[in-house]
Write a structure and sequence with these properties.
Pfam families: GerE, Response_reg
Organism: Streptomyces monticola
Number of strands: 5
Strand content: 5-15%
Keywords: DNA-binding, Phosphoprotein, Transcription, Transcription regulation
Largest sheet: 5 strands, parallel
Number of helices: 11
Radius of gyration: 18 Å
Helix content: 40-55%
Protein name: Response regulator
Order of helices and strands: EHEHEHEHEHHHHHHH
Distance between the termini: 45 Å
InterPro entries: CheY-like_superfamily, NreC/VraR/RcsB-like_REC, Sig_transdc_resp-reg_C-effctor, Sig_transdc_resp-reg_receiver, Tscrpt_reg_LuxR_C, WalR-like
Length: 222
Amino acid sequence: MTAVLIVDDQPMQRFGFRMLLESQDDMTVAGEAGNGSEAVRMTAQLLPDVVLMDIRMPGLDGIEATRRIVASGDRTRVLILTTFDLDEYAYAGLRAGASGFLVKDAQPEELLAGIRAVASGDAVVTPSLTRRLLDAYADQLPSGTAEHRAEDPRLTALTDREREILTAIGQGWTNTEIAERFHLAESTVKTHVGRILAKTGARDRVQAVILAYDTQLVKPSA
């Protein structure tokens, strides 16, 4: 059973989400919050599997609430809902540690699939879409020299092959594409990806893409 905390400042929006989630045999609504501060407090109390997080709310917004929830170190994952497909809010949410985002007008089955994916540890946003987001906001990414990149502690534990695969992840390649490029079995690629996430502390594949940009293994498109 996946426990979900619904966070939205619109009561009717929360009601709609609750009705949808309660219609599922494998989901339960842990609670509802009307703003970011409530979301942080209730997440700490209830420890839901997934927080369905709105962004634009009075007081503490969904971005900062996501950042605080992720920073707490609990197993709760955040799925952000945004009004627009590609905007600065989605970008900021991913940077804050969200495991993905969906637009608010997504089909009910898409929302349910997204919640299930996030609860199981997957990312809802495809790597290629994450790359588009990061390219769009490249001017906000950290800058640094090659020497700085080489010294980044998140990369020091990686083998040469793992760095190659992290670079490919950052370029939006799927496991199948990586397997074909490096002449590896797809199961071997999955093993490498798992090790990369474990060694770097990245929560999921989305965060691995962001790491590749942060450390300049991948650079934004011109």
